[in-house]
Specification:
This protein is mainly β. It is built from 1 helix and 9 strands, in the order E-E-E-E-E-E-E-E-E-H. It has one domain: Immunoglobulin-like (Sandwich).
Length: 108
């Protein structure tokens, strides 16, 4: 069964749907949900220090606490892996670089 992962970004009041990978700035807080799942859902990240995870059924509150990368496994009661998501936490300096790109111009 397909189980889409949705993410709500609390700092900018926005949501993304069916996420498979994510980059967060240090200190950013999100709520991750899997609406199609009910019952006991397990969120496993092997106590990775990059994220603080507070699970609550098919929802999990996450705070980016340390620069790094974390692979989160979402499992059912029988510990069958339903989904996997990689979350990369980047530094405040990287978030604030403010890079911009102009429109592409053809070579002459």
């Amino acid at each position: 069964m397909a189980t889409g992962i949705n993410v709500k970004f609390l700092s900018i009041n926005s949501e993304a749907f069916d996420v498979s990978a994510l980059t967060l700035g240090l200190g950013q807080e999100i709520i991750m949900s899997i609406p199609s799942l009910e019952g006991d859902v397990r969120w496993f990240a092997d106590n990775d220090p990059a994220l603080k995870i507070t699970p609550n059924g098919n929802l999990a509150n996450m705070i980016a606490e340390q620069v790094g990368q974390s692979t989160i496994l979402i499992m059912d009661e029988a510990t069958t892996i339903l989904r996997e998501i990689v979350i990369t936490v980047i530094s405040e300096e990287a978030v604030n670089l403010g890079l911009k790109a102009s429109s592409p111009e053809p070579k002459q």
